[in-house]
Amino acid sequence: MKLNESTEHYNLHNGCLEGKYAVFSQKKLAQLKGVFADEQAFAAKDGEEIVYEVSSHTVVPEGTPGGLFFGTSCIHPGTVGGEYYMTKGHFHAKRECGEYYWGISGTGLLLLMDENRNCTAQLVKKNSLHYISGYTAHRLVNIGDDDLVVGACWPSDAGHDYGSIETEGFPVRVICRDGEAVIVDDAHAAG
Ligand code: F6R
Ligand code: MN
């Protein structure tokens, strides 16, 4: 039997993916309109700034039952009006699908929200492991001064549903107060 070397590579230290199945995407600040509470501070920033980057390893087409996707997210450090940079956040379109996240480098929070808008947070750092149950929206927040790099593995038929997060957000926001990350109730969510 001929032994073939894999064309696919994963750098355990920085999360970089390389190979013919690696797909790369970037999220600029302008694409995150409405995500941050302070609209004035948002408008004053450069919309071209890259907030986060996602590398995905997608061997099978999106929607394939029984397959898996693997990826790494890199959320850069920064704030909008004191609110830390974060991902958009989503439920999976196929709600029952779970996901694994694991911390590779940096410091962050993983916000988890069930369908009744009950929210919890987990500290993400190098080697932390996070099982995201089905029916649970998830968002990463970079609360450190360096890039937050997080690995992920999820079913290839999970899909993404950004709709309710876009309209209602999460019930909490993570802000920088005196240099420390603080989780506060979203004023808009109150009542
Ligand atoms: C996949 C997953 C991650 C995120 C990524 C970007 O199901 O959870 O790969 O897609 O961290 O976050 P969103 O998709 O919320 O912009
Ligand atoms: Mn997900």
Provide an overview of this structure.
The protein is mainly β. It has helices at residues 39-43, 163-168; strands spanning 9-10, 17-18, 22-28, 50-57, 68-75, 79-80, 83-84, 99-105, 108-114, 119-124, 129-132, 136-142, 148-155, 172-177, 180-185. The strands form five sheets. A six-stranded antiparallel sheet has the order 3-4-5-13-8-11, with no helix packed on it. Strands 10-9-12 form a three-stranded antiparallel sheet, with no helix packed on it. It is globular and about 60 Å long. The chain starts with 8 loop residues before the first strand and ends in a 6-residue tail after the last strand. Bound molecules: fructose -6-phosphate (F6R) and manganese (II) ion. Fructose -6-phosphate (F6R) binds at residues 54, 71, 73, 87-90, 99, 138, 140, 152, 154, 158, 160. Fructose -6-phosphate (F6R) is lined by residues 54, 71, 73, 87-90, 99, 138, 140, 152, 154, 158, 160.
